[in-house]
């Protein structure tokens, strides 16, 4: 159920008829090696910012940012960039690295670590869809390298909520216990691994219980239930040199068995195992819960019979300007639609396809009405308060034009009455539907 109140004029120039349909979506993962160290008493705290280039003016626009990783010159960023990949277009990308020194979102407040340019086609077309490039942008400095990986996303729409705990993990801290956290990786076809999730750190314990977390199955294994998932266990250190406790492997299919003896994993440190004959493990990690959730899309609702009820409420306050003047949002030009008519048409022509009877209540507020000049903040555009419905978006447009000719723009801007009008209608509709269901 969607109700739109039109009191604004600007609409975009998006043309749904001529919009390209993306061939596929790809997920971009970024890692860096040997970044510049900009911090005096610790290592850099890097973030990666992705810019894409506009088709027309070639202007660089920020697409997104990874998370900040503290105290490392070799970050493996968890946060991904999801891009539409067009085979027939050159899609230029720019990756900028910064050392984050404060909580400011303004990049100029942080130390620049270097940048790299490439195209999405370059990444996708590289061996294993893995592109490694030198970072530049700082004269006379070696800025390290950036590794950009791309993987096509399938249309798997499941998410899974999981929770894990650890038991008798190795003690790594001299003066206390370990501060353990988990890092999840999905395997790639070339035998490499891509990071997909980090848990929070649980301080000073060898028996941690991590918070439950939700992750798309697409991110965990790209919809391949038998793909290997590697999990590494670390002891967190403030300086970023986290101690490796051990690792284990599983798969989505194995995890989906839920809490059972199958999902108690021995955490193994290969170096320790090679050195000590009596070494068994560095503790265990147990799956406590596993809950699958299907991500429902708008299209699923429409296929299921959802109807969208569209109510229009138009602002007739004097702040819109004199309708006789071209500067007014209500200006009645013989040559083109005014701002309100453009917004009505743009929204209404799409919405009406999802309403079977195409009867839309159309209201106005903030005007003096004939014949007595009383101010109303809830009047029917068609002049019939008992039945404010108009037939289709063309009927709404016609009622709007007729109102403009008869009412006087006034004020103030008070749209609570039309909100209450819609709320009353849908409350009554819900009650009627419940009554009908009880009768049947």
UniProtKB/TrEMBL annotation:
Keywords: Calcium, Metal-binding, Phosphoprotein, Repeat
Gene Ontology molecular-function annotations: calcium-dependent phospholipid binding; metal ion binding
Cellular component aspect of the GO annotation: plasma membrane
Entry's Gene Ontology BP terms: cellular response to calcium ion
Function: Probable calcium-dependent phospholipid-binding protein that may play a role in calcium-mediated intracellular processes.
CDD domains from the UniProt entry: C2A_Copine (cd04048), C2B_Copine (cd04047)
Keyword Phosphoprotein: yes
Domain C2: 1-125, 127-265
Pfam families (UniProt xref): C2, Copine
Listed InterPro entries: C2_dom (IPR000008), C2B_Copine (IPR037768), Copine (IPR045052), Copine_C (IPR010734)
Family, as annotated: Belongs to the copine family.
PROSITE patterns: C2
Protein name as catalogued: Copine-8
Metal-binding listed as a keyword: yes
